[in-house]
Amino acid sequence: MAQAKKKSAGPRVKPVPMRMCIACRRSETKRGLIRLVRTAEGRVALDPGGKRAGRGAYLCHQASCWEQALKRQGLARALRIESIEQEDRDTLEQFAQQLAATEVAPLSQQHGHD
């Protein structure tokens, strides 16, 4: 006898893709992190849309994670390249500085607490 399949009530919910920051190892939604990609030419580029072809790695929106990934060669290791070209490194460092400028101050500083 064939068994009747149970249907769940309501529409099917898609699972949210999760990724991990290569610097702090915190798990976050794919859209909550910034993707970097190794291109076919071996260069490193930002991939804000998350759709570019190539090996990808993810970093938080925190400047400290970007600094750590660049200083300790974590990004190069994650993208499986020998080293990051200086031009690409400069671009990524500029992006990290922009992130640092836009980071929200800690709550203790926002409310005048010392």
From TrEMBL:
**Any idea what this protein is called?**
YlxR domain-containing protein
Going by the entry's taxonomy, the superkingdom of the source organism is recorded as Bacteria
One of this protein's Pfam families, by short name? YlxR
User: Which positions fall inside the YlxR domain?
Assistant: 19-94
Which InterPro entries does the entry mention? YlxR, YlxR-like_sf, YlxR_dom
Q: Which SUPFAM superfamilies match?
A: YlxR-like
NCBIfam families associated with the record: RNA_bind_RnpM
Q: Which organism is it from?
A: Kouleothrix aurantiaca
